[in-house]
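Researcher: Following up on the earlier apo prediction. This time include the ligand. It's flavin-adenine dinucleotide, with the SMILES given after the sequence.
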Amino acid sequence: MTLGCDALVIGAGPAGLMAAEELARAGRQVLIAEAKPSPARKFLMAGKSGLNLTQDEPLAALTAEYREAAPWLAPMLADFGPDQVQDWARGLGQDVFTGSSRRVFPVAMKASPLLRAWLRRLDGMGVQLRTRWRWTGFGDGGLAFDTPAGPQVLSPAVTVLALGGASWARLGSDAAWVPWLAGQGVFVAPWQPANMGFRMDWSAHMARHFGTPVKGAALCAGNQRRRGEFVISARGLEGGGIYAVSRALRDGVPLALDLLPDLSTDQIAVRLGLARSGETLANRLRKLGLSPAAAALVQEFARPLPEGKALAAVLKALPVPHAGPRPLDEAISVAGGILAGALTDGLELRARPGVFACGEMLDWEAPTGGYLLTACLATGRWAGRAAAAHGAQLSASPGPVPGIG
Ligand SMILES: Cc1cc2nc3c(=O)[nH]c(=O)nc-3n(C[C@H](O)[C@H](O)[C@H](O)COP(=O)(O)OP(=O)(O)OC[C@H]3O[C@@H](n4cnc5c(N)ncnc54)[C@H](O)[C@@H]3O)c2cc1C
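Model: Understood. Below is the ligand-bound prediction.
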């Protein structure tokens, strides 16, 4: 059965919900189709680590973090950047605070109250949410769905795709849409993991340190140097510290650890020289302030250990050979997706007028720190507004519609 529909949003993650809100605000009749039995599962998962909504920093600094995507994301981030994200959360009854490294979190430190308030607001605006509605591609006369009531085809005036990236498929973002869009002539850059852990070929000695965090080290990759915590696990190295340099490592830059970032090589050498004769190496490393897990990393990667200043140099730049990124599905986010060149300035697919796209399915990447949600919300809002304007043009003139922007 083919159903008419005014404005359709596919995907009920943060990008899709934001697009739906903008369409509804512009007076469109909005239907959100979501494949999963409930909306925004990845957003709720992000809430388990506190829900880092944005980064409280000047717009130019924030925008620069999106690197090659910064030029085309800039107008969207200028429209909905760190200040607007915080106001938006407050508007949904969620006070926010700025934690360490300028990361902004809701005081509740979880996503569920914010999501509940947002869904209530959308419901009040007349937005309809259909769950277990899985888009299966472009069918005859519209967009085809598998639904609890059987196959349906929708032929909306405008559509916003907000299908997410290609990691944590169990939360909904399975990237099944890539061939459907590619088949329409939409260019999609191959996926790569972003903000991910790395596999390690550990020796058996490391097993007793699995699950142990290493704190206070600096992770160095080329000219990048980040203080941060990471975890030694059976799967490799994981956690915020490693994510911060993961893009450089993915691109082939070797990893080195400065295990004593507050001391110079000379200072460490002097302290090593003060050790009593016959004192075990383990004891000397412990007295320098290394945790057992950090000392185990030294033994793992620098044996046979040199003495004196050469050992001090090893502690300042311990090479850590990894065996490549953990699998794509485990990554916090992804690189790749719909290329900017496949989109108009209004995030409309050039190959498919009337269809817009937003969120993590677009080809941008960013570090953790709230940059991911900020860009999802900003692009969702931008696409929703452009789709609403497109829909308005359609209603005003039955003739051909020029691309937006
Ligand atoms: C563990 C974890 C922690 C994170 N923490 C943070 C954080 O603190 N701060 C931050 O900024 N970011 C964080 N992120 C990243 C952030 O959650 C994502 O970038 C964001 O959710 C992407 O939003 P989106 O709307 O583009 O896509 P998604 O949230 O992935 O939503 C896409 C939706 O589309 C639906 N969908 C997909 N295909 C179909 C289909 N064929 N038919 C119908 N529906 C479909 C999916 O079911 C899903 O509901 C975290 C991610 C993870 C995995």
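Model: Confidence is low (pLDDT under 50) at residues 398-405.
Researcher: Noted. I'll compare it with the apo version next.
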